[in-house]
Amino acid sequence: MYRILVYNIAYGSGAPSSYTDNILKIHRYLKRPDKNLKKISKFIESSKADIVGLLEIDTGSFRVSRQNQAEEIGKQSSHYTHCLTKYGESLTGKIIPILRKQGNAILTREKDLTGEVIAKLFFK
């Protein structure tokens, strides 16, 4: 039995306290503080999850100083990283630098727990 966690990290920007706060602090989507990734990693490690689905990650845009958030979280939380950008090659919006680096990821505690194995677990 695997312990599974799904977490929308909102590009490491930190959770707003309200809808108004979200609008007033829209700048947080342009540059994220490092402390949020550390908090996210600590939470994931404390959950003892074997498989972690990360939603809304940045795979290396200028917003995160070219750092892949999933890989950084994986290192800090002792997980292997498997990530892809959200948008296909045909998306016209990929010309926008931030959009072409947005993605989702799966972190696994076991190295051999590949995408195929995970797909079989969820889609039997």
Would you kindly provide a written description of the structure presented here, covering whatever features stand out?
This protein is 29% helix and 21% strand. By secondary structure, it is of the alpha+beta class. The chain has a four-stranded mixed sheet with strand order 1-2-4-3, covered by helices on one side. Helix 2 (34-47) crosses helix 3. 24% of the residues are buried.
What keywords describe this structure?
124 residues; alpha+beta; 4 helices; 4 strands; 21% strand
Summing up helix and strand content along with how strands pair, one would put the structural category as alpha+beta
Percent range for β-strand residues: 15-25%
Tell me the overall shape. globular
Radius of gyration: 15 Å
Offer a quick outline of the entry.
With 124 residues, the protein is an alpha+beta fold. Helices cover 29% and strands 21% of the residues.
Describe the secondary-structure layout.
Blueprint: E1 4-8, H1 19-24, H2 34-47, E2 51-58, H3 69-76, E3 80-85, E4 102-108, H4 115-122
Parallel strand pairs: 1-2
Antiparallel strand pairs: 2-4, 3-4
